[in-house]
Amino acid sequence: MLAIDVQDLRKQFNVQKNREGLSGALKDLFKREYNQITAVKDISFQIPQGEICGYIGENGAGKSTTIKMLTGILVPTSGHIKVNGFVPFKEREKFVKGIGVVFGQRSQLWWDIGVIESFQLLRKVYRVPEDEFRKRLDELVERLQLGELLNRPVRKLSLGQRMRCELVASLLHNPSILFLDEPTIGLDIVVKTEIRDFLMKINREHGTTILLTTHDLQDIEALCSRVIMLDDGRIIYDGGLDELKSRWSKGREIHFQFAEHPQLDNLRVLTDGLGVSWSQDNELTATMFLPHAVNVSDALARVVGGGAGIRDIKIVETNTDEIVREIYQSGSASSEATKKLGNVVALDKEAHQGNE
């Protein structure tokens, strides 16, 4: 069963044009002019239950707008959404019982009261029985180490402490889907690691479906097997993280430190036929560049077995940040991924028509 099913989703906004000067301000009082902005442009995707999916893109790409439509905060201009079998903006009361939401820059906790009191209020909002609430709260508090924070006012928590409490608040009613919009923004590496580990555990143990939007691609690498990439309101990539790396990564580099001055011609002879290239860094170091198709162990065996006196080896792979930045700067993903997406959508429509 699909946790999220999105077909041809579009969202347009009318944004007021502000004219310059006093005369312009007076004209705006009596006759306003608007520009129509399309934030999300006919996107389609499906997320099965239990998947952790990364939803990434530059600022203004349409990520948060999509999340707000999926959670029922915004009504789509056109298209179809089903989340847990519900249409989010139509069946609000039934729908919200099955989802949890964390917006990294907005809080669902009450600022001036203790954390535990916020949790109690949310229990009543979601109508969670007291015994279930206590059992769930004890488990979450223990896992995120919040025991000492429960009686503190939210305004006295650090950012990392507050985000851990936000996660607990979003999971108190045991939702099957968790929407996370920039959950680790502004956090230090220790708190980020704790939150990532926690999310992996609830996904593994409870089968919680997670849709994660973030600018921190280390979150994506740590949590997600699948990535949906947005650019200017359109999906330009939807697939596995490994496939993204293999298709657009420039490959790997292996840095060798030798006991004596290496001869590049000799190194090229050792790796002849593999499709690698060499460069000399200084008197004792050289770098071998490998396309993804080349097996690292084969290349290393050639060099080590060739009798070169090697003191140290370092393998460097292009990281996800560099790959995504290159895609956005060059637009290299757009044509191929859009074509692929169009084929998938066409097949889905044919299948729906056939079922009808």
From TrEMBL:
Keywords tagged on the record: ATP-binding, Nucleotide-binding, Transport
GO terms assigned for molecular function: ATP binding
PROSITE patterns per record: ABC_TRANSPORTER_2 (PS50893)
Residue stretches making up the ABC transporter domain: 24-257
Top-level taxon of origin: Bacteria
Gene3D superfamilies associated with the record: P-loop containing nucleotide triphosphate hydrolases
InterPro entries per record: AAA+_ATPase (IPR003593), ABC_transporter-like_ATP-bd (IPR003439), ABC_transporter_ATP-binding (IPR050763), P-loop_NTPase (IPR027417)
Protein name per UniProt: ABC transporter ATP-binding protein
